[in-house]
Write a structure and sequence with these properties.
- The protein is an all-alpha fold.
- The chain has one domain (72-282).
- It is 68% helix and 0% strand.
- It has helices at 13-24, 28-42, 58-127, 137-150, 163-170, 179-211, 241-282.
- α3 (58-127) packs antiparallel against α4.
- The longest helix is centred in the N-terminal third of the chain and has 70 residues, at 58-127.
- The radius of gyration is 54 Å and the shape is rod-shaped.
- The termini are far apart.
Length: 287
């Protein structure tokens, strides 16, 4: 019939496609089961370690403790021995240097004592003429002669040689030196301080006594071109006898100061002799 020709044919493609798709899709649950089985088969078996140890016997603990104790003790002893060797080396070096310094100082002290003894005797003679009448030409000449013999412008001093001693004190070297020797060195240090105080007093008095001569005479006229006392001596300024007597008193006081300085040097020299002999004996130092 003509009416049926205008109708479109029924399209069954959607149904056909739906059927084909349902046949190709694999359910999700089945896939998950397959994957889980595969992973289970591939998994490695891990065993937990056995954390339970067998208890040690007390002897084993004791041996371990003993080994550790011995190791620490040996290390401590080795370090002490090494330090002991270093201290011995320092001690010997200090002692040798100190012994050398003292022997050099001894030579200087001996010379200073000899010269200052001469000066003390000369001053004593010089002071003995203090009551003479210096307006007399012969007495005036005697004054300058004895003044020249005393050599008040050229007195001798000997400062202690403290190079090694100061190094020992600065570095704590007394701690590595034997107690007997350290005690002697401490005594030496005290003696050095006494010598320096005596030397300062000696120098001060000599300066005072020497400079007062400027008030008694035309000082530049005393000396010739060679630096020696002039043969044609200028007269003393004798108009002020009190000032002249003061000069003799200062010079006498200087003599006493010199004698005190000499006594200190002699005591110091005895200490040096005793110390050097002890050092050479104790440490086998060759002269």
């Amino acid at each position: 019939m003509a009416g049926n020709t205008d109708k479109e044919p029924i399209n069954n493609s959607a149904n056909t496609q739906s059927e084909n798709s349902s046949e190709e899709i694999i359910p999700t649950k089945d896939t998950d089961i397959i994957n889980q089985n595969t992973e289970s088969e591939n998994m490695e078996v891990h065993h937990h370690p056995d954390l339970h140890h067998k208890s040690k016997k007390w002897k084993e603990y004791f041996i371990e403790f003993l080994m550790i104790f011995l190791a620490v003790s040996l290390g401590y002893l080795a370090e002490n021995f090494r330090e002991h060797l270093l201290n011995n080396e320092k001690e010997l070096k200090y002692v040798e240097n100190l012994n050398r310094d003292l022997k050099e100082e001894k030579k200087g002290i001996t010379a200073v004592i000899i010269e200052n003894n001469k000066t003390a005797i000369a001053i004593d003679t010089f002071v003995s003429i203090r009551k003479l009448d210096f307006s007399i030409k012969e007495n005036n000449a005697l004054f300058f002669k004895l003044f020249g013999d005393a050599k008040l412008w050229s007195l001798w001093v000997q400062s202690p040689n403290e190079i090694t001693l100061n190094q020992i004190k600065a570095t704590g070297g007394l701690n590595v030196i034997r107690p007997k020797i350290a005690e002697l060195i401490a005594g030496l240090d005290i003696s050095n301080q006494n010598i320096k105080r005596s030397e300062a007093l000696f120098s001060s008095h000599s300066e005072e006594a020497f400079r007062m001569i400027y008030e008694l005479v035309d000082y530049p006229a005393l000396w010739d071109k060679t630096g020696n006392l002039n043969k044609n001596l200028p007269p003393l300024m004798i108009d002020d006898k009190k000032k002249l007597m003061k000069y003799f008193n200062l010079t006498l006081d200087l003599k006493y100061t010199i004698e005190g300085y000499i006594n200190n040097l002699n005591e110091h020299l005895l200490l040096i002799n005793s110390l050097t002999k002890t050092l050479e004996k104790e440490y086998k130092i060759k002269e």
